[in-house]
Amino acid sequence: MDTPKHALTVDNVIFGFDDGELKVLIVKHGEGESRGRWGLPGDWLKLEETLEQAASRVLQDRTGVRDIFLEQLHVFSDLDRHPGDRIITVAFFALVRSDAHALSAGKTEMDAQWVNVRDTPELIFDHQRILSAALMRVKHKVRHEPIGFNLLPEKFTLLELQRLYEAVLNITLDKPNFRRKMMKMNLLVSTDEKQSGVSYRAANLYRFDLKVYKELTEQGFVFEV
Questions:
Q1: Is the pLDDT at 199 greater than 80, yes or no?
Q2: pTM, two decimal places
Q3: Cα–Cα–Cα angle for 108, 117, 91, nearest 5°?
């Protein structure tokens, strides 16, 4: 009996938040059948690394970010997911600030860009399915865990926080109701500072209470909108 042969890769869905939009990092391939087409950043699993190490390497190579939490999303193993070869991929997703890191295309890539998650070009293979699965996971997380720590600046306004929730859930939230629910969780701490350099009335700045943030991440909650 012949031993089955297959290859293993990792693909990363890297979300960022900028200018009120939830964005995803995509790369343009520079080699092979997918040359000139867009896809999620990924790579082959090397013999000397774990899946988590490979995903972290892909993240660091494209954004320069170290020690950002990566969560395993799903294993994609459809027989026809890749033309010609049997390739299984393990997808991960991460949340980073899209405006705080310099992008860098990989060695076999032509370009790397942040794009709105709901306005991506046609992606290679089953990458659109992977992106959709990751977006569903983040929608679930935002209702049950705080996710803004890596997506927002250290100090932010309540409107910026609301826009993050709206961008993830793709809905419009009632401002007073949203703010009331957020303040009730005791998650936010006033910095006693206001925005600077804005042409409109400066809003108060807040930061996350790290102790409460950690507790809510571990225990979870239900955020009804």
A1: no
A2: 0.91
A3: 55
